[in-house]
Q: What sequence folds into this?
């Protein structure tokens, strides 16, 4: 065995080395960097936008992890109420009953933040000769009162409507604003996401569907008229900003009260000029 003085020298050397390592890592009195994991869940309309926000934010803040999943606005709202997500993405407003539920569980009402705008778009196959429909015609099609394209000026063929699942905020928005809370026709085929609606309409020359403007790739987007006497309006940056497009809508973040520093920092960045430029890049419209 080594003599006592040798053991003491060895021990002192080990302690000095450990202290040096701690100082190098900044654990002796240094303030911790903003770090943590932020979970984002909800709207399938917003999931691609949320993922892009997360990717760009994490490049600039590598100590923060942003996890984004879809499932629908209703799913995201339920997760926020149950405390299993930090941020809910929603393409519709929370219902009063949902806000009450959250307030009962969390002790405070949710924080609602409009983070982007969308022009909910009506999709048809590229071969469809129609270029526009009125709000009343859309209601008749999706409630089943009109089931042949010739009834609205198209070919003599059965209309195949594609819808979203009832957990979707887009489903709820369309039902409230177009169907005026009437029931969807049982013939409407419920699809698990907006991309699935688009893919179905691309394959079906007599199909019609609806969803976010950013998903309108490889299909025709119809102009929409408030009524028969109104002009037909396409969802564009100008018509979304001035509100002339009949199906303009805000897209939301919902948070529980007193969000963490990480959640607040991410949300503030989403609303910044840099975050809003990503909104445009993805295909939606920035908040003014």
A:
């Amino acid at each position: 065995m080594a003599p006592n003085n040798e053991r003491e020298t060895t021990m002192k050397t080990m302690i000095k080395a450990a202290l040096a390592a701690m100082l190098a890592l900044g654990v002796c009195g240094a303030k911790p960097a903003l770090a943590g994991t932020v979970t984002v869940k909800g709207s399938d309309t917003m999931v691609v936008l949320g993922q892009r926000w997360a990717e760009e934010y994490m490049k600039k803040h590598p100590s923060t992890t942003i996890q984004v999943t879809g499932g629908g606005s209703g799913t995201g709202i339920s997760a926020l109420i149950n405390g299993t997500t930090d941020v809910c993405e929603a393409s519709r407003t929370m219902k009063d009953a949902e806000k009450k539920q959250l307030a009962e569980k969390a002790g405070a009402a949710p924080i609602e933040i409009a983070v982007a705008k969308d022009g909910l778009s009506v999709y048809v196959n590229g071969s469809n000769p129609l270029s526009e429909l009125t709000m009343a015609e859309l209601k008749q099609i999706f409630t089943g009162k009109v089931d042949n394209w010739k009834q609205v000026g198209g070919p003599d063929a059965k209309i195949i409507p594609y819808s979203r699942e009832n957990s979707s905020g887009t489903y709820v928005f369309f039902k409230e604003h177009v169907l005026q809370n009437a029931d969807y026709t049982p013939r409407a085929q419920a699809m698990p996401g907006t991309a699935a609606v688009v893919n179905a309409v691309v394959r079906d020359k007599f199909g019609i569907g609806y969803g976010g403007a950013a998903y309108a790739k490889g299909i025709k987007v119809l102009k929409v008229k408030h009524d028969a006497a109104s002009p037909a309006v396409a969802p564009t940056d100008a018509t979304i900003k001035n509100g002339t497009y009949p199906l303009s809508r805000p897209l939301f973040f919902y948070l529980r009260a007193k969000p963490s520093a990480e959640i607040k920092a991410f949300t503030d960045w989403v609303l910044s000029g840099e975050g809003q430029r990503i909104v445009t890049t993805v295909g939606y419209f920035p908040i003014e």
